Fold these 3 entries.
Entry 1:
Amino acid sequence: MRKYSITTVVNHLLLLCSYTSAFSANAPTNALVDLYNTPDLSSRVAIVTGGSRGIGKGIALELGRAGMTVYVASRSSRSGSISSERDLGSFEDCTVERTAEEINNMSGKGKGVAIPMDVSNDAEIAKLVQKVQEECGRLDVLICSAFTTPPNLTDASFRDEFWKQDAGSGAMWDACHGVGLRGAYIACCESVPLMIDTAKQHTGTRPLIGIISSFGGKSYTFNVAYGVGKAAADRLASDMSVQLSKYNVDTVALYPGLVKTEGNIEMEKRGEWEEASGGFDLAMGETPQFSGRAMALLTADSEMMKERSGKVVVVAELAKELGFTDVDGRLPPSIRSLKFILPNFVFPQIEKESGSSLPSWITDNVPDYLLPWSTFSGGPPPTIE
């Protein structure tokens, strides 16, 4: 791992922050003006796996708010079991029924349909798509957000060396590649024929598959198995687009940033978040609905989606481009922005090493400047000697 002296890092930071205005001239501004207008997606139909909580729920809610009929699919149901890999504490009713009810209680035309199911069961996926075909005759959006919580998420061993994690069990690998990757692939296999038919029957409509991925697909994050799974999810979106382009069906690998999911919020309450995450500041995180806004706007603009099909779309970067904020009025920075990287990685190390706080004229004036993807190919951020 690369190491730098604290003097070198500080000198570079001082120079960097002194040129904030120069950076800002070439980077999107962080203006907190919300230009988001809920698009009209009424008559369209979506399947959202993993829709009982987290990012999946946030997307389901925003697609429902836009008027879509949303089939909310997840294991967690009032009529059966609640997935228990994570302690959700005060978030007691993280079920498909709750998500569907929230959609149905909105003032618009959206409709939520609760589907208790296991995405690891191929037959249940096929049954869901058949139900959508029989009831609606079309499928415009498939969101693959279901993901099995990896083992040891609440402590530092989640970030351990791979041979210590999986020798003799393969539990981390299976968790990161089962539901989140294989399940997504099978959901796409079952859904695509109906989506192709939808594109044929409804002129101007380009159905969209959204694979929920993360920055782990581009940069070392947490552990080996996690990163391989996310890189594979990105490749799934990319390679599917090659075959689907002639059928007017689009794909995207969606990169949320640090997200304030129910599980993450509870980890922070219990004092587990800092060790498990490696010190990320959850206060800088996004709400799950931020991803939902991104997917609603992509669905509404077929030309924009056609241009981005098969590519990675970073939620925070799309928000700056299109001028919308998170639902709480904030504009969270992209994880590859200096505005995220310096406060989460560099500043804490400098302050720990020096024993004193950095001046506010540095910490309050970090430019929202995006580092190129190539910066992240060499491993985690540098440490300080």
Entry 2:
Amino acid sequence: MRMGWNKWRCAALAAGLIVMRASFAATPTPTPAVPEERYLGVDIDDAQQLHILSSDHRDIVPKMKKDQVGFQSAAISTDQYTVGWVALYMDQPNEDPVGRELLVFRDGKIVRTFTGNGLPILTWSFEDDGRQIAIFQNAVRGKFGPHYELRDVRTGKRVAKYDENPGRDAPQWVLDVAN
């Protein structure tokens, strides 16, 4: 028995769709191994506004958070895919602002906000080509000891902490952020 033209077309079309659907299902969607956007420079202007220069020469100007009064210690990771900075807030009236948050910017958006143990963030550094961040915190006044944290940028989890004055036996990431 011969198949009619319309039935043959429908059968061929259905077979083609099944093959096409199977090939789409078997082909995984590629995910970029590295972020899309690179950063060439960071600067904090006289008005305390942060500027990030992207590799396509756009001036990215992150907005300040509520009650934030400025930016401090902006830096780019060595692989140029991540930018970090400290957000400044007024702790006490008539005193200098203090760093309360470390923000991490990647692929055009803030991906992490670190506060550590709540003490002011005094210094920080990228570690492991921007995959980790080391933070040094201490009280501006009062009798608190130093606090160091190493954080994973991708997960936000604390990798290590160190709550002593760093000596020669301190981990390298502590020595990096302590100097």
Entry 3:
Amino acid sequence: MSNFRGVSSGFLLESRVAEDLAISDVARVFGLRTSAIRYYEQIGILPPAMRKNGQRRYDNSVLFRLAVVQRARETGFTLEEIRELFFGFPPGTRPPKRWQQLSQRKIAELRNRMKRLKLMETLLKRLENCRCDALEECGEKLLRQGDQESQPPSHQASAYGLNFGVTSRRAKEVRRKK
């Protein structure tokens, strides 16, 4: 969290200022736009604000909730996953259990994404060594390479929509007819 009107957020929480905050004040503490605060209310991540003379007013509980939202966003959670963090567990489920369950799922997702990125890097490095004069020549070599290589990483590439080095059945049939 940042400073609020030049005052540290820690001091803000200890003072009475945090009992009656305008939406712009809350947004400033977290470096958000006021539209983001209103959107979080709209989708239920934040409770509806109290109104004073028609303006939204917040107490420090919104700061606490936004601190959780901010940390969850920093660690890659989607808004839907954040909603699940707050509302997707039986009442009384303690925060550690919520974080553990969602974190384990997010870590598995990140590991899969890292595998995919590593595979993409490997394929790009192979493509960097291209010595072809025309893209059609590249395509021909990639198709031939697929006949010679039947390694599991190539099949993983296909699963990610990256068919370098993997020959489809149809491509093999076309080449056999030549």
